[in-house]
Amino acid sequence: IAKEVAKLLEMKAQLGGDEGKHKFVLKTPKGTRDYSPKQMAIRERVFNAIITCFKRHGAEVIDTPVFELKETLTGKYGEDSKLIYDLKDQGGELLSLRYDLTVPFARYLAMNKITNIKRYHIAKVYRRDNPAMTRGRYREFYQCDFDIAGQFDPMIPDAECLKIVHEILSDLQLGDFLIKVNDRRILDGMFAVCGVPDSKFRTICSSVDKLDKVRAGALGCNCRCWSFSESLSLWAALTMVRENWLENADKHRVVLVPPFLWRGGTQGTAISFDLSLARGLDYYTGVIFEAVLLQQENDHVEEPVSVGSVAGGGRYDGLVGMFDPKGRKVPCVGVSIGIERIFSILEQRVEASEEKIRTTETQVLVASAQKKLLEERLKLISELWDAGIKAEVLYKKNPKLLNQLQYCEDTGIPLVAIVGEQELKDGVVKLRVVATREEVNVRRESLVEEIRMQTNRP
Amino acid sequence: IAKEVAKLLEMKAQLGGDEGKHKFVLKTPKGTRDYSPKQMAIRERVFNAIITCFKRHGAEVIDTPVFELKETLTGKYGEDSKLIYDLKDQGGELLSLRYDLTVPFARYLAMNKITNIKRYHIAKVYRRDNPAMTRGRYREFYQCDFDIAGQFDPMIPDAECLKIVHEILSDLQLGDFLIKVNDRRILDGMFAVCGVPDSKFRTICSSVDKLDKVRAGALGCNCRCWSFSESLSLWAALTMVRENWLENADKHRVVLVPPFLWRGGTQGTAISFDLSLARGLDYYTGVIFEAVLLQQENDHVEEPVSVGSVAGGGRYDGLVGMFDPKGRKVPCVGVSIGIERIFSILEQRVEASEEKIRTTETQVLVASAQKKLLEERLKLISELWDAGIKAEVLYKKNPKLLNQLQYCEDTGIPLVAIVGEQELKDGVVKLRVVATREEVNVRRESLVEEIRMQTNRP
């Protein structure tokens, strides 16, 4: 009976779908967007810069499913857990969409008993946040994560993460940036001296992280933390640091900024120690950092909420142990590049510069000037494809030459290979350079080589 | 109050998570898997072959969100709709995970009023099916789609889709394959003559599509269709085709296999017209096709269910119109490469061949033979990174040279750059070729160039 009911409901849904098909709103879900070919071209540039950097640092790559068992995510994100997307219970396991790439990474390490890896992972994550899409904040967004897991000498991998942020932001030429650095152990020391109970450390961290938002939104519930932070003097902070933390200096050596971070090309850039940096996530246990852009493209727009944060990360030595059946720890440190914000900036820049971005790589259009040459065009393009040449043909039986040339102008195709009855008889193809309108007859057997030479893509 | 309750529930969930953290099953959700670095290396090879082909044919690329409004997917997949993953109603819009890339593509076209595009899209899709993961069937799996949308002369874009399947399967060297081709209009003609009411056409198609499964599984409920199909003689079929379809031959010209598909290199390959091919999806309206591998890697394993289907597609002229407020149609034809099956085959092949796959591209390890040279190693590697050299360093203050050399052997790093006190004094670096154990002193300012030359990666 249940099966029959389901079938009827399904039919009803289908009928409903048909009846209402012209009524529903034609849109993507709230906080999400499509990428057009032009946006994809910009996105691939950014990805290339980031992946090149990750590979330069010897990272492997992994991938994990878009959803995890709900319990895998439970208890990892503190009060932000309310932003997790759950899947409907359709029988079977309870699932949630991944909230970041760090928890799936820790689950992966524990599950496969890996104690030593340097990996990157680029994928979409999901947060039921209130999106501000014009500022590059979405509910579905990419994270580009680089993490180093393993028991190593202090601060060497941590410093490499900072170096990576520095390299990527420099490569992308986003203007001046500042990398703020702090340490959860310092914050914990401060909280302890202030009399905050241990159990509240993470909540307070999360609140400190939202200070900017509090200032902007004047949310009553968080004001206590805000004034707590305001009243905290540097003297108090430093005392606490000394008492609670630096006594273990040998164990937790502060080599936050090793010499190699300061070599060349750091004009206009700075790494600064910032006691107000807290980071929202629960799982950090040591160094934390965040990169912000200093010069915004839209300086005239008031943007009080986390202006220009484009990367963040830190050390999380306890997370893998939460998954391991015996609680074995694997120390980890990592960085996440938040590229939606970077996309937005580069998109605006392309928009402003009127730079013409090609969305295909086609080298040659196979065209004809006369009618009834469809089969000859298809035969030629097939030869070109088989030789690895990027080629297109208009899907018309008898296209006009003018339309074919116009198509090249519109899409940036640099060459046209024209077949005609005379050319077929002579065993040649007329090769036209779109930009200069030069035409030259090329022997058919030399055509592939000639196209390669002209487009310089062997 | 609701907010407080939510907060308490959240706290309870967290406590539960902490208590039970060593009890829960450490796994990925049913029907999903992680990709290890080695699997990713194979996956990237396959993607490269596919993307290269799509670009060779002049396709642009787009991306869409992983979930759509539930109503966007409603009424598009017939009885398979029950396999759609719904998200939990957490307030706001009702959402579902995408089931394929075709419906989101149609939604994208209608939403942006695009009437003419050739695009590819590579992304994961989701089906609550019963997975058979050993055979490369998952609940989360990649599709690689290539589609041509627009009003064109008959069969030219359709034939290009077949050409693409042919090129990709040839490139990947998966062995002999067969591309089966049919046309929904022929099937509809047959159903009409058999007295099947119009409203049942799609259901019957779906049943015909499952014939193989029926044969294997002997599912009682589908047996009617099975015998229906068996009893259908070729004569009846051809009569129906003539009567219902070929009278419009000029409009719907059958150029299923244009000459260019038959040029060179088709030994062991065939494109065959197959009346039993139906395809499961509701939205096809013309040509349909499916590629199957003929020689399985595991010939000894009995695999009666859809053996080796690795690509499929067809024409769907009505789908975009279902989204357009005015019902305007955009004719489309496309192909989807199902690469999970291909991954499985290539993984098995790599396994069997004991081919050593590198999972990083690191060119050089920066090492030292003496103690207290951490800062010098970091300084040198920083120079190399800034020059674009892919380099690694062990995260130890004083690693042993033997361990550093062993690391290169294990990971396939071809070169070691060794700094020592004497080398620092002399302004040189000792460059060691791991394979030959040859060592040569290189002046520090020539090191980058020397590494580039030796690894042949400018």
Automatic annotation (TrEMBL), chains A, B:
Keywords attached to this entry: Aminoacyl-tRNA synthetase, ATP-binding, Ligase, Nucleotide-binding, Protein biosynthesis
Catalytic activity: tRNA(His) + L-histidine + ATP = L-histidyl-tRNA(His) + AMP + diphosphate + H(+)
Top EC group: ligase
UniProt record similarity statement: Belongs to the class-II aminoacyl-tRNA synthetase family.
GO cellular component: cytosol; mitochondrion
Residues bound to L-histidine: 100-102, 127, 143, 147, 279, 283-284
Organism: Oceanites oceanicus (Wilson's storm petrel)
Taxonomic placement: Eukaryota, Metazoa, Chordata, Craniata, Vertebrata
Family matches, as Gene3D superfamilies: Anticodon-binding domain, Bira Bifunctional Protein, Domain 2
InterPro entries: aa-tRNA-synth_II, aa-tRNA-synth_II/BPL/LPL, Anticodon-bd, Anticodon-bd_dom_sf, His-tRNA-ligase, HisRS-like_core, HisRS/HisZ, HisRS_anticodon
One of the GO biological process terms: mitochondrial translation
Domain Aminoacyl-transfer RNA synthetases class-II family profile: from-to ranges: 31-346
GO molecular function: ATP binding; histidine-tRNA ligase activity; identical protein binding; RNA binding
Name of the protein this chain belongs to: histidine--tRNA ligase
The protein's Enzyme Commission number: 6.1.1.21
